[in-house]
Amino acid sequence: MHYYKATIQYDGTGYAGFQWQKDIPSIQNDFNLAIQKIIEGKVTTMGASRTDTGVHAMEQLVKITSQNTIDCTTFTNSINQLLPAQIRCLNVMPCSGNFKPASDPLSKEYRYYFTNKRNVTLEERRFISNFSLPLNVDSMIICVREILGTQNFQNFCYAGSNVKSTIREITVCELTEINPHSVFSDSELFLLPTELIHCYQLKIEGNGFLKQMIRHIMSALWMVGSGKLTPKEFLHLLHGPKKEKRIWKVAAPNGLFLHEIKYNEVSPS
User: Fold this and answer.
1) CA torsion, points 60, 63, 69, 72, in degrees to nearest 10?
2) In angstroms, rounded to a whole number, what is the distance separating the alpha carbons of residues 38 and 244?
3) Is the pLDDT at 264 greater than 90, yes or no?
4) Geometric angle at alpha carbon 8, from 172 and 130, rounded to 5°
5) 107-261 — its CATH code?
6) Please, are residues 258 and 56 in contact by the beta-carbon 8 Å criterion?
7) Which fold has domain 2-102?
8) pTM recorded for the entire structure
9) Which CA distances in Å does 160 have to 66, 80, 107, 154, 230?
């Protein structure tokens, strides 16, 4: 067998996440269908991150296992002609058969983008979420700083998560104001209205994430910013016992991007 790693980018709107699901639109399914049209023999794929319904990716890594060899340049050009407009293959290169894209990463970086306006257009909402109530960003930043380090995120994940541990290490967590065009200007997929020159960015990097973890954190931060939750109450949820019910609705997926996956330099090769 021959092994390759492909870096892909996608607009997750209308997809039920990355991972293949029977009779449900997924990024992996459309990627596999395109591969089958250009490569003969048995081919399988494995992604580095599942990403949830509606979540986007600036950089998702996919391991391709093929019965036959692949010419990487020809493959990249050919598959981009066959993929739906919402998915782009950025590059393909050989990798080790031992490479495990989901378990080998040193860290993953996600970013959540949102505006704080009374009204937004459909164009603005495709890749950037919106919270329409006034926000005290300083209070939110107090909480953001406390997320750093090794924490138990049992109160900030999908209630039905079935995992061995809800403890994760967060190495970067920042809430800043940015011009979103500075992030998306080099991508042909993520086109924003010209007049949209300001939004907030929650940047978070860690050794792993629970299902819907970042979107629950975002919702809780909005509650802090809007005065419905105090920073002290937020910290009690972060450091205290498990609560049976969430006191917020999970933030919408449209603002969330898998931004980058970092590996040990020798791992993928």
Assistant:
1) 20
2) 49
3) no
4) 55
5) 3.30.70.660
6) yes
7) Alpha-Beta Plaits (3.30.70)
8) 0.94
9) 36, 37, 24, 11, 26
